[in-house]
């Protein structure tokens, strides 16, 4: 980042409190209902300020989330429909694009590494799919949430680890390889485990269709990740074919034609696998776009090799912010009624994941580095997946409220925990016990 730009961003540190004072003055003066634009600008200013400081840049995403939430709370119609098109229709495609981006950062070895560290991965998976769903169920009952909101809390706990856990583990001086492998394994297990947990724990709140939820997870999460793995080979493969213009051109044409054919074929041709169609369309289309982009950027223009690493995080961040804004607009009134309780539930749920994840890992005789990794992996859930399932499978904006609130909080708490651990070097040998 150029120094002048950094200086401009850092000056937002003075703009933010001024805007905050303006908001306070308007509220005191009886103009609280007119504070919407200023509140939005306040969070935008805070997000820009964070970009000016290396230590704060990783939590700028949370400030952007608050800015989008403020916009959707004050102008819900803007996130409801555009020219008759309902924006909630975009939630699943956006999640698929985000999961595709996750796939491009992975390689097959990230999945097979489980065979080199089976004991830590087993402990992590056991805690992931026991502590978090049961904690979600207990909190839903303790707070007395209405059925659909309660189902959303359980849903967050029943989802696999989130992609942010890998970054937080790195910052916390944990075992990044273990974190990536745990994320991969829990994600691959989720098509079976998540519907099973939801049927067993949340069935009392809502009707859960096991088979539909399984297919929706495959469509929304697994298929795009597999497509991302293929794109990873195209982008970063060392073989001669992946750098040839002719091969990339052929791949682009074939992938885009398959995506178009899957899009325009009658859904009945897919039978019971029809829910997988959008994943196939998005997957092939994105692989085709990646091949075309590499052809243009890397082969024809001789541009940088890792350009996609800069693009996808921005796309993912924007997609998640937009998803949260759509969900907030859909359930604005209910959020005003239960928002405080959901925030408290989010904090407690997340805290339980960190504490129980860490100390149960210690009880299993894992080393300090692995314990930190397990704690972060258990505490951070895939909120995007929970949001998509709530809106697409459960057909409930109320159930999507919990993921919309839990997600931003997990980024805040994860950053704080990682920052604290980064100042405390791991002193125990890692690993211990019967790990492999």
Number of strands: 2
- List segments where confidence is low: pLDDT < 50 over at least 5 consecutive residues: 430-436
Q: What value does the average pLDDT take?
A: 86
What CATH architecture of the largest domain would you give? Up-down Bundle
Strand order of the largest sheet: 1-2
Helix fraction? Answer: over 70%
Largest sheet: 2 strands, antiparallel
Rg, Å, rounded: 22 Å
CATH class of the largest domain, please? Mainly Alpha
Strand portion, in percent? under 5%
Task: Quickly count the domains.
Answer: 2
Structure description:
The protein folds into two domains: 3-76; 77-422, Na+/H+ antiporter like fold. The protein contains 19 helices and two strands. It starts with a helix and ends in a 14-residue tail after the last helix. Strand 1 (81-82) and strand 2 (85-86) form a beta hairpin. It has a two-stranded antiparallel sheet. It is globular and about 65 Å long. The relative contact order is 0.15. Helix content is 73%, strand content 1%. It is an all-alpha fold and 436 residues long. The protein has helices at 3-10, 12-28, 36-51, 60-74, 91-104, 108-112, 118-128, 131-143, 147-158, 164-171, 176-202, 210-236, 245-264, 277-300, 307-330, 332-363, 368-379, 383-393, 401-422; strands spanning 81-82, 85-86. Residues 430-436 have low confidence and may be disordered.
Summarize the structure.
With 436 residues, the chain is mainly alpha-helical.
Secondary structure layout:
Elements: H1 3-10, H2 12-28, H3 36-51, H4 60-74, E1 81-82, E2 85-86, H5 91-104, H6 108-112, H7 118-128, H8 131-143, H9 147-158, H10 164-171, H11 176-202, H12 210-236, H13 245-264, H14 277-300, H15 307-330, H16 332-363, H17 368-379, H18 383-393, H19 401-422
Antiparallel strand pairs: 1-2
